[in-house]
Design a protein that fits this description.
- There is one protein chain.
- The protein has three domains: 7-115, Butyryl-Coa Dehydrogenase, subunit A, domain 1 (Orthogonal Bundle); 120-220, Beta Barrel (Butyryl-CoA Dehydrogenase, subunit A, domain 2); 223-369, Butyryl-CoA Dehydrogenase, subunit A, domain 3 (Up-down Bundle), CATH 1.20.140.10.
- 52% of the residues lie in helices and 17% in strands.
- It has helices at 7-23, 26-33, 37-50, 68-81, 87-100, 103-115, 221-260, 272-298, 306-331, 342-352, 359-369; strands spanning 120-123, 139-143, 146-157, 164-171, 176-182, 189-194, 202-213, 217-220, 262-263, 266-267.
- The strands form two sheets. Strands 1, 2, 3, 4, 5, 6, 7 and 8 form an eight-stranded mixed β-sheet that branches.
- The longest helix has 40 residues, at 221-260.
Length: 372
């Protein structure tokens, strides 16, 4: 496989890096972690103007029609900057809706997502914090032409900014159903902010006999399970791409620090033990990068590689979190202080390693995919 960037991907990388260096600084990241929702809205509005939310939506529905592998280039840069923005949530939701939704729901929602008028976030995890589709307990009772939804979804990212949630529920006959639920200021929806290591807004969504039109159904039965599994796989690869960018940024920052920080009259980066740490970090970051792009490349309008997707998330979850802890060792005491930015990366890595399934979850998926 050629891992070189196409002309389009190089343009995405350069333009994203230039924009994020100016607009997604660690000052912005800290402000959002302190509860500044205006900083999120301001950044998201600028991203909408750039059209990033429409990158993988087909041209037929108002998007750019680019590939998932092109999106991965953007996500790397977003991960490197820790940009607090719901681009992953929006992108994987639109991806699944376009792959599995009916023509009416695609025609209604996708152009609005592409224009920035609608923001959809996945709401899958429940009380047991599992990403397994069979863990879904939220009930949807049929009432005329509506589904009446009751139950709770947890750890929903950017729920207070989103207009809709893409949610897996169970209907009267216990059939899994993937449905788009309007949540913006909706009666019957209670939003509870949760403390979260990521530093971005995460909430619990409680549905109290919320009536949702049957026209909002994306898929039912076995098709809903397939759609949900693909959403988790796409989310896992997307987070892995962000973790790859985060790892690269941490390696670069650690190399810079150890080349200037002196001990015993020498830069600490000249000590063999530190050099071994730096080499291990660089190798880990590069391994994750290759696996991510192999997995992203496998996604197409026809499907994806379950093996490649699982491998990418397993490697990213384990290796990048460990990379961050090694970076703290190389930084010494200052790397553990609140004033230093390194902890922002570590906290985000710890949150992302479990998002859309941790390594144990994806090892189980990998074993199933290869027939073990």
């Amino acid at each position: 496989m050629d891992f070189g960037l196409t002309e389009t991907q190089e343009l995405i990388r350069v333009s994203a890096r230039e924009f994020l260096e100016d607009r997604a600084t660690t000052t912005t990241v800290r402000a959002v972690a302190d509860g500044d929702t205006e900083a999120i809205s301001s950044l998201w509005n600028e991203i909408i103007e750039l059209g990033w939310q429409a990158m993988t939506i087909s041209e037929e529905h108002g998007g750019a029609g680019l590939a998932f592998s092109d999106l991965a280039i953007l996500l790397e840069e977003l991960g490197a900057s820790l940009a607090p923005t719901p681009i992953v949530e929006s992108s994987i939701s639109s991806w699944v809706i376009e792959r599995y939704g009916s023509d009416p729901i695609k025609s209604e929602l996708l152009p609005q997502i592409a224009s920035g008028g609608v923001l959809i976030t996945p709401a899958f995890v429940e009380r047991d914090a599992s990403w397994q589709t069979e863990s879904t307990k939220v009930a949807a009772t049929r009432s005329g032409s509506d589904l009446v939804v009751t139950g709770e979804k947890r750890f929903v990212a950017f729920a207070d900014q989103a207009t809709h949630a893409l949610t897996l529920v169970r209907t009267d006959d216990d059939a899994p159903t993937l449905i788009v639920i309007p949540i913006w200021k909706a009666e019957g929806v209670a939003l509870t902010p949760l403390d979260h290591a990521s530093g971005v807004p995460v909430s619990s969504l409680t549905f109290n006999e919320l009536a949702v039109p049957e026209g909002n159904i994306v898929a039912t039965g076995h098709e809903a399970v397939r759609a949900a599994e693909e959403l988790v796989a796409a989310g896992g690869v997307a987070r892995a791409a962000q973790l790859a960018g985060l790892g690269r940024a941490v390696v670069d920052a650690t190399v810079e620090y150890t080349s200037t920080r002196e001990q015993f009259g020498k830069p600490v980066g000249t000590f063999q033990a530190v050099q071994h740490h730096l080499a291990d970090m660089a190798i880990a970051a590069k391994q994750v990068n290759h696996l991510v792009h192999a997995a992203a490349w496998s996604f197409s309008r026809d499907g994806y590689s379950k093996v490649a997707a699982a491998q990418a998330k397993i490697a990213a979850s384990d290796k990048i979190a460990n990379l961050c802890w090694t970076a703290h060792q190389c930084h010494g005491a200052i790397g553990f202080t609140w004033e230093h930015d390194l902890h922002l990366y570590t906290r985000r890595a710890l949150a992302w390693k479990t998002d859309y399934g941790d390594s144990a979850f994806h090892k189980s998926r990998l074993a199933s995919a290869i027939g073990l």
